[in-house]
Amino acid sequence: MHNDENEEHWTDHAICRGADPDLFFPIGYSAEMLRVQMDEAKAVCANCPVKAECLAWALRVGEPDGIWGGTTPEERRYLRRTAEAPARRRLPVIVVRGDASESEHASAA
Hints:
Layout: H1 31-46, H2 51-61, H3 73-84, H4 102-108
């Protein structure tokens, strides 16, 4: 695949471009410090015109670290799990002999 040097990429429009990368890869000494830093990074993402593209990329490649598209690694893991989960169907009720009284079997039928 040929990539033209002049071809634009979604990252060209990211407002975090040129920002301190440490903001988006929180490393702190306390849970409160991490929360503040993550909130600051997410605030930058909230105003970004390519937030959706950034998140889609991070989900596609399985980015394990940092704030991408306004999400933490834990939030992305949750999104990937729910997106990959098969649709849920109601399972049939199975009555095992001795689980219920005869009257409950009759009303269930």
